[in-house]
Structure to design on (325 residues):
């Protein structure tokens, strides 16, 4: 029945050094395990198999074991002499080959581990680079989207600014202006109000002043026409008020024909630059029958004006005579 034995006993049983037993166990050529204290145990059947095929190594590492002599095996309380260890070059060569195989196996395992480690590191670097590239691409797309949104926001704000200026310009043409004028203002502002004539850097107050000046230029013909109409209405209202004053002043006259004559004279003569006093004086003249005389006086006044002009000429002649003297 197979049993587990310590490394030293396995080395004695196999006729090799303890280091050889350990190397063979590490290479998997011997069945090995550890006890509760952590000491390595070797299966005795493997040690016997090793003893039958491979002798003890005589390399420098195993200098603690005798190169010749008999090996005794402990069996119970008695000691029986073991078979002499035959030292032959075939066994030493076989053991050397076995050690080389173990070293090659370890070297191959180490190389495989290094390749695996390098492959893991390469994959890790590739993943890191891909992650960095993905993050960079994501940041680039985010910046592009932000710039696009900023441009859309700026364009919307600019449209809102221009629309507000157009609305302000149209509000200057109130209901007093005809539809033709308001339509002309709307068409003119549609072409005038833009980012070129009114750039975004221009202050809102300055932009409104420019729009206001533009609207006033377009509305100037309509303002002049309305101003003339207002002046005409005011003149008519002033003249009508003066006519009422004159008619009221002649209302106490019992002669209807004379009142009609007063009305006719006032209609023909009263102007908006007359005063109420002038109207009353003219009514008094008509009521007093001085209408013809006034015309004569007017002629005389004209003659006087001519006379004054003649007097001026006489004065000039007098001055000339004075100079001659």
């Amino acid at each position: 029945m197979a049993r587990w034995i310590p490394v030293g006993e396995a080395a004695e049983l196999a006729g090799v050094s303890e280091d050889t037993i350990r190397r063979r166990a590490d290479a998997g050529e011997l069945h090995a395990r550890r006890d509760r204290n952590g000491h390595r145990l070797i299966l005795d059947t493997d040690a016997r198999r090793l003893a039958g095929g491979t002798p003890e190594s005589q390399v420098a590492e195993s200098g603690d074991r005798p190169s010749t002599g008999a090996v005794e095996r402990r069996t119970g309380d008695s000691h029986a002499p073991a078979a002499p260890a035959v030292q032959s070059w075939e066994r030493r060569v076989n053991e050397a080959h076995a050690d080389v195989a173990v070293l090659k196996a370890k070297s191959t395992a180490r190389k495989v581990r290094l390749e695996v480690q390098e492959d893991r590191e390469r994959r890790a670097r590739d993943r890191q680079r891909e992650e960095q590239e993905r993050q960079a691409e994501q940041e680039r797309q985010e910046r592009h989207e932000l710039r696009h949104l900023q441009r859309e926001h700026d364009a919307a704000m600019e449209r809102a600014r221009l629309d507000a200026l157009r609305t302000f310009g149209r509000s200057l043409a109130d209901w007093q202006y005809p539809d033709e004028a308001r339509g002309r203002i709307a068409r003119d502002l549609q072409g005038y109000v833009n980012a070129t004539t009114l750039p975004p850097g221009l202050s809102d107050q300055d932009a409104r002043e420019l729009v206001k000046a533009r609207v006033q230029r377009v509305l100037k013909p309509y303002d002049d026409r309305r101003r003339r109409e207002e002046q005409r209405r005011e003149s008519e209202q002033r003249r009508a008020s003066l006519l009422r004053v004159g008619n009221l002043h002649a209302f106490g006259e019992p002669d209807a024909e004379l009142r009609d004559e007063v009305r006719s004279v006032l209609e023909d003569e009263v102007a908006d630059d007359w005063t109420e006093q002038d109207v009353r004086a003219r009514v008094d003249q008509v009521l007093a029958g001085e209408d013809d005389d006034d015309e004569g006086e007017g002629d005389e006044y004209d003659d006087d004006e001519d006379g004054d002009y003649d007097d001026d000429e006489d004065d000039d002649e007098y001055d000339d005579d004075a100079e001659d003297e």
